[in-house]
Every structure is written in structure tokens, then in C-alpha cells.
Design goal:
single chain; about 650 residues; alpha+beta; ligand-binding face of the semaphorins, domain 2; 10-stranded mixed β-sheet; 10 helices; 39 strands; about 15% helix; about 30% strand
Length: about 650
């Protein structure tokens, strides 16, 4: 039958009711040893003061300064892994604005402003201090500090952001992979204002809703936001949900007939030996929006549905189809209020290369049209390779990952995310990348984050592991807190603890979605894979680095070792739900984090070295904080120790958690 690929520039299509580049770091975080216990260590009260003394180290659990031990000896009274000799591992203090005595340090915190006249830091907003008054020179802009902005890729602007005005915020955007950090300015939409909650600046609703928002409250009830409040109306023909929101269906389906069928898309999966992509096969198209139009696509909507797990669908159609009737498949998934996941064409020319944040000049949803005049007798519709079924595969994998994740966070809403992929379009230094960067490039919709997929000769868009991995970043960003360490990293080489935690989580999530510990990808150098259960790489030149039990919990660590430990924990219990509960727990989303790690910025190199390393003052979570959340949340300690193996590998002992 004749099939057409569409670039959907309309939003009337309705439904009825985060690659990562292969990272490295020298193991320099361990403490040295000394024979004699210096008398002065106990006199040091603060962690920074203690670790600055070459003879001393600090126990994060007890808060005591003690002599550095022999390499093979522990510190009496201090749990394994809780003793540090490095100032960068000291616990970040709870931010009290008044305690910050310099302008740059003050304005590196989301809730603080600087009063130049009094040379004092105070809680407040861009408009002024929260209490009292500043007689002169109140500033919220870190670049106005004496000496200018501090060094670093974002000039001191925190990843948690700052409200630059009541309707605007700025933050340091750290993508999960590939792209350099950058300062992002976000303007809040109508009905939203910039607020700081739990130390994070965000655009939040002022009222119950933003005027114009819509949602289906029931199969025959539409709610429309008017005056910041939802107002209900009855839908004679039912309530339907489109990519941009909900509306009352325009057409009655009285006297209609059933149009049933099955939707598939062409895909390529790895060969059995994982040496390349295999031949084209057909896969069921799961969770796609599918609609029946009686005339103009986007205008004359007759009925709509969502394909099932096997690609099956049931639509209503007129008893006598018209010559221009068609079935249209769209690449978006929706909840009761409209689209939440979109796969879109950015509109760049084939063969071009762009930066991930380059504005999309002609953004449109992917859509595929099938004329009813040639509807097959068996009802089987297929999105072919030459219709760029790669976009269908991207949607299928991302949506499957979303569907697996959402039940783990009951009552939570899913922030919108769009995946950009254009046939023949490459993103600079990126195979696939998730970024918590908002955009309105797709039909003016306010979308919270973006995912960029390169579509060149490597055909890495068939790598389901990579796509689900990026959605793992979306899960952490949406329901937990990302540590804010990102950039280029390399499989098989240890990296900073924050980056290893976020990447390890994303890889574990991909394995959870697939039900398999094997991760497969293809990059410019060819196919490669690894197995987080067996702890092996397909490339014999790569070494699986295990943690060192004699080093601190915040030691450099291979991101895949974090994934391997998560895999073991998730397989040791009856359900992986405790992992999702721990991710969203207050101790993993609220600063300061108990283990005291702070976010770092750095440049990574393929030889295992780092340059331009800077420790920020921003408290950040890492794997040990997550293990505490599991431990203190009631996960059996044997399940944790069975994964970390504290005496031989990662020095986290489940018998010594930091609970609060």
C-alpha cells in the first residue's frame, strides 16, 4: 500500500482516554600513613582545617580529626570508608547566607544576595533581602562582585540556579554527556514565577494552573484553566488528548465501524556476535498515538487510540470511507493533560552538523500516513526503513522506558521531554545526550528537557541500550537529583564520584528496562558491548576497574562498576522498587548531602587524566549517599554488602550507614 512519511506541523492528532562517549582519573584520593600519632590532630575542629594538616585526617561520621593511619590499618571508631584526608571530601556546610563573608561565595548560592553597602550576605530575592533592608548596592548578579565572576565554566552560577528576577532564572547547565557546561537563562511562562524550593530555583505555578491549560478529567469531561483555576465542561463526543493538550472531540462516531489492525516498524538489532547491526526485521510499535482522519490531516479527526504492547490498535471509522481518509501515526505519548514525550525532527538539512542547543529551525513531530483506500485486508501497517523508521525506534524505546519508570513514582507527574533526531543530522561530539535544558522550539510547547540523537552512518539510533540509558538520566533529573557532574567520559576508566553515580544509574536503568545486563552500542570505532553482571568488556583492551577497599568512599570509580553494584542489589531483592524509592527520598534530593561530597568541574582525557579540575562549594550526591538511602530505608544489609563487598571492593559497610 502507499505510505507517506509526514512532518506533522499541526497538533490536532489526538489519543483517546538523558550515548555516552567512552572516562579517567588518577587514583590520588587516598591518604598517606604515618607512624606516630601527632598530638595536634584532636585540636582541629573543622574538616577543612583537619585535612589541611598533612599528618591528620577527618572522620565524617564522628566529626573527629585523627592521625592518618598506616595503609593497612583502620581508624578506631571510624567506619570503613568514612575517613578522608582530602579537603574536597569534607562535608559541605548547610548554607546560612549570613555566614558567607565574600560576594562570590554568597552569590554562588541560590537563595543568597549581597549587600555591598554593608558587605554582608543575606537571604532574599533579586528584589532585595528577605528581611531588613540593604542601604546600598544590593546585588543578585555574581558578575558584579569585586574582581568579576569567579573562574569556572559557569562563572560561579550554581547548577541549582538563581532567580535573576521574579520571572527569570539562570543556572549552570551540565549535560549528562558530551557538551560543555554553559549558563542557561530561562524565562518563566505566563502563570509561572521563579521560586527557590529546597535550594533549587525553578519556574513554578503561581496558582492551581496556567491560563489555557487543559486536561481530561473524565471520558466526557474537559477542564480548562481560567483565572488560575480549572473549570469543567461536558464533551458530547468525548474528551480527547493531543500533543498540546486536551479538547472535546469534534466528530460523533455514531454509526461508525471498527477499523482494527497491527502496527510495526522496521528496525535493525545487533547480530548474535554483536559485530554489527543485523538485517531489517519488524518490531511491534508500542504506545504510538494513532488516529483516523476523514479528510484534512490535523483537522478532520474522526477517532484516535494508542497502540498496544503487540502493536495492535482499534479505531472507529465511517461506514463508508472517503477517498481522502487516512490513518496517521504520531511520535508522542500523552497523559491526561497532553503530550509528555515527543520525538521530533529539528528541521536541519541532511548531512549537517550542529551543536546540541542550536535552535531547531523547523521543528515538527514525526508522523506516518496510511491511506484508507489501500488499507490491507490483514490490517498490518508497517513504518519502513525508507520512511525513517529510526525515529519510530527512538520513540518506541524511550516510551517503553518512560512506561517502566512512572509506576515507580506513584502520584508524580512526568516532566515533558523531547528527543531530536534528523535523518543524516549529527550533533557535535555527541552520539546521544540528555540535557535538562528547557525548550519551546516544538510548536511553542514548554518542554522541560531534551535528548539529542545523532543519525549518521553508524546508525547508533538502533542502540536500545543507549536510548534507555539517556532516559535513565531523565528519571534521575525528574524524580531525584543529579549531581551536576557531566561531560565527556570513557568506559573502562575511573572518573569523579558524582559523574560515576549518574552514569552508573543510567546504565543500570537501561538494563532494568531491557531485562538484560548486556549493553550494546556502535560508535565511530565500531560495535562494542559490556556485561554489568559478568563485569566484562567485549574489547579485551579495556580493563574492568574494581574499587579499592583501602580508599575513601569518594574514590574515583568506573561508572560501570556502579551499574554492576546496582544490578546486583536489584537482583538480590524481590523488586527493584527500593532503588526508585531511595532515588526520590529526601536524603537524595535535599542539600546538604550527608556524605559531604561536592560537585567538581574538570576536563577529561582518553589517557585517564583530568585537567582544569575545580571543586565547587555545591554539595552533591554520589553512590555512597544512595547506599545510605537504601540502608536507612530498610533494604536488608546483606543485599547491600553482597553488592559492594566492602572488605575486598567498595568500602561501604551496610552496618555503618549515615541515617538522619
Amino acid at each position: 500500500m502507499m505510505r507517506r512519511a509526514l512532518r506533522l506541523s499541526i497538533l490536532a492528532v489526538s489519543v483517546a482516554l538523558a550515548a555516552c562517549t567512552p572516562s579517567a582519573m588518577p587514583s590520588d584520593a587516598g591518604g598517606s600513613s604515618t607512624d606516630a600519632a601527632p598530638l595536634g590532630c584532636a585540636a582541629h575542629r573543622a574538616c577543612g582545617e583537619c585535612t589541611a594538616d598533612p599528618a591528620c585526617g577527618y572522620c565524617i561520621v564522628s566529626g573527629a580529626c585523627a592521625a592518618r593511619p598506616h595503609d593497612d590499618a583502620g581508624v578506631p571508631g571510624c567506619p570503613t570508608g568514612s575517613f578522608t584526608t582530602e579537603p574536597v571530601n569534607c562535608p559541605a556546610p548547610t548554607v546560612a547566607c549570613a555566614s558567607l563573608t565574600d560576594c562570590a561565595g554568597c552569590l554562588s548560592n541560590s537563595a543568597c544576595g549581597w549587600c555591598g553597602g554593608a558587605a554582608a550576605c543575606a537571604n532574599g530575592t533579586a528584589a532585595g533581602p528577605a528581611s531588613g533592608a540593604c542601604a546600598a548596592s544590593w546585588t543578585w548578579d555574581i558578575t558584579s562582585c569585586p574582581g568579576g565572576a569567579p573562574p569556572g565554566p559557569c562563572s560561579g552560577i550554581p547548577v541549582d540556579g538563581r532567580c535573576s528576577s521574579s520571572t527569570e532564572l539562570v543556572r549552570c547547565l551540565v549535560a549528562a554527556d558530551g557538551a560543555d557546561p554553559m549558563v542557561l537563562t530561562e524565562t518563566c511562562g505566563a502563570g509561572y514565577a521563579c521560586t527557590v524550593t529546597a535550594g533549587t530555583a525553578r519556574c513554578a505555578l503561581v496558582g492551581q494552573c496556567a491560563d489555557g491549560d487543559t486536561r481530561c478529567a473524565a471520558v466526557d469531561t474537559l477542564e480548562t484553566c481560567t483565572g488560575s483555576t480549572f473549570v469543567r465542561s461536558h464533551c458530547d463526543n468525548g474528551c480527547s488528548i493531543g500533543a498540546s493538550g486536551a479538547s472535546c472531540a469534534a466528530m460523533s462516531t455514531t454509526g461508525s465501524v471498527v477499523v482494527a489492525g497491527r502496527l510495526t516498524f522496521d528496525e535493525r538489532t545487533p547480530l548474535p556476535d554483536r559485530s554489527d547491526w543485523g538485517p531489517v526485521t519488524q518490531a511491534p510499535a508500542r504506545g504510538f498515538a494513532i488516529s483516523y482522519f476523514t479528510g484534512i490531516i490535523g483537522t478532520d479527526l474522526y477517532s484516535s487510540a494508542v497502540t498496544g504492547a503487540d502493536g495492535s490498535f482499534t479505531l472507529q471509522g465511517p461506514a463508508t470511507p472517503g477517498d481522502s481518509d487516512s490513518i496517521v501515526v504520531s511520535s508522542f505519548a500523552a497523559d491526561h493533560a497532553g503530550g509528555v514525550l515527543f520525538v521530533a525532527n529539528p528541521g536541519f538539512d541532511p548531512g549537517s552538523m550542529h551543536g546540541p542547543y542550536d535552535p531547531a529551525p523547523g521543528a515538527t513531530l514525526y508522523g506516518w500516513s496510511f491511506p484508507m483506500a489501500s488499507f490491507p485486508a490483514d490490517g498490518h501497517l508497517d513504518i519502513a526503513i525508507d520512511q525513517f523508521s529510526a525515529a519510530a525506534n527512538v520513540f518506541d524505546v524511550l516510551n517503553a522506558a518512560r512506561v517502566r519508570a512512572m509506576p515507580a513514582f506513584p502520584g508524580a507527574s512526568a516532566p515533558r521531554v523531547v528527543a531530536w533526531i534528523g535523518d543524516g543530522v549529527a550533533y557535535r561530539n555527541v552520539h546521544a545526550m540528555y540535557a535538562p535544558a528547557p525548550t519551546t522550539s516544538l510548536y511553542g510547547l514548554s518542554i522541560a528537557s531534551q535528548l539529542f540523537v545523532t543519525a549518521t552512518a553508524t546508525e547508533s539510533y538502533w542502540a536500545d541500550s543507549v536510548l534507555a540509558h539517556e532516559m535513565g538520566h531523565w528519571v534521575m533529573q525528574s524524580f531525584g537529583r543529579a549531581p551536576g557532574e557531566g561531560g565527556v567520559h570513557y568506559f573502562g576508566l575511573p572518573t569523579f564520584p558524582g559523574l560515576a553515580w549518574s552514569e552508573g544509574w543510567a546504565t543500570w536503568f537501561a538494563a532494568y528496562v531491557a531485562g538484560s545486563p548486556v549493553y550494546v552500542d556502535k560508535q565511530d570505532s565500531g560495535m562494542f558491548s559490556f556485561d554489568i553482571a559478568a563485569r566484562t568488556y567485549s574489547d579485551s583492551a579495556r580493563t574492568w576497574h574494581r574499587p579499592d577497599p583501602a580508599m575513601p568512599l569518594s574514590q574515583p570509580i568506573d561508572e560501570n562498576e556502579v551499574a554492576a553494584m546496582l544490578w546486583t542489589i536489584s537482583r538480590n531483592g524481590a523488586s527493584p522498587q527500593p532503588l526508585f524509592d531511595a532515588l526520590a527520598s529526601p536524603r537524595m534530593v535535599t542539600r546538604p548531602f550527608a556524605r559531604g561530597y561536592v560537585r567538581h568541574t574538570f576536563s577529561a582525557h582518553g589517557d585517564g587524566t583530568f585537567t582544569d579540575v575545580m571543586a565547587t562549594m555545591e554539595s552533591a550526591p554520589f553512590f555512597a549517599d544512595f547506599l545510605d538511602a537504601l540502608d536507612c530505608g530498610g533494604l536488608p544489609q546483606a543485599s547491600i554488602d553482597g553488592a559492594t563487598m566492602p572488605t575486598s571492593d567498595y568500602p561501604y559497610s551496610a552496618s555503618m550507614p549515615l541515617c538522619r
